[in-house]
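task queued by scheduler; priority normal; single chain, no ligands, no partner chains; default sampling; output format set to structure tokens
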Amino acid sequence: MFRFSQKTRYRIDAVAVAIGFAFLRLIPVDWASALGGFVTRTIGPLLKVSNVARGNLSAAFPEKSRAEIERIVRGVWENLGRTGAE
């Protein structure tokens, strides 16, 4: 399998982000915000960094159920996506 260098992967990532932001500029801000929130709310909780958030929330709020903590994590990701898209 072909492997890209770290520098090449960064460049590919940068181009992908630039294309994404260019697309977001073409649509109304409300749509962009909703799309950004949807994408990050869907993908973000699957990332390893979300496990850190879950652990920290569980430690800070031991009375909260797993469902409540998951709702908070999804809300954080949605807010981040909306803010980035706007």
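post-processing summary
- The chain has a mean pLDDT of 95.
- The chain is about 80% helix and 0% strand.
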